[in-house]
Amino acid sequence: FGSAHRAHASVVGITRFVQKSAAGLLMEKELAYLGKAISNPDRPFVAILGGAKVSDKIDVIENLMKIADVMLIGGAMAYTFLKAEGMSVGKSLVEEDKLDLARRIRLDAQKRGFPLLLPVDHVLGQEFKADTATQVAPVSATPDNWMGLDIGPKTIATYKNKIAGAKTIVWNGPMGVFEMPAFAQGTIAVARAVAGATSAGATSIIGGGDSVAAVHQAGVADKISHISTGGGASLEFLAGEKLPGVEALTNIMIGTESGKRTAKH
What we know:
six-stranded parallel beta sheet, 11 strands
């Protein structure tokens, strides 16, 4: 599945020389979980998106806004949205060329009454390094020479509350620079909240290398319903795109009663 979004010879080309192509058990599991999330999710459906860049997640954001009940935004990508709303974000990472896009997405969410939640407070660092000075501040009071590197306690509380009531959770991207202990609390808290909701009956799906690393770091990987083996593939699938490696299979059944996508001989 990790290479299903690539039309490579070993993924797609070989299928032209055999009569039938079927999914293996891992591919079947990936398509069952991801397929149900975007076609027939149990509700409420909470989408959690983080990471550095809005540009990496545009299609996923726009597609999941049509499917999910609420979206929680964290990581550096949140600052492009916040700056687009006129917030002062200090030295936080911003994609200046994506500000108009961020405004359009927020406006679309508001028109449809879709709750696209952004951080209200954050953990700031003076520099981008592990031993830098830190402070917690509301986003609206961000000092000029500081950068946001994790979501703050009020944002964590809000996000945990939304996650606790979920029946389907899809998470891709950390809430901050979790590789540095001073800025790991937001991501760890979200990982534990997702695990708690899963134990209470929710279906949780985690994709992307950083998010997978985070649940392992938090010690809750065994409490997640499904950890995807495909970062780029899972993102493209959640964006509603067709994956060449899936399309090459014989007789794909999409949207069956169980919500599974399968490939049969």
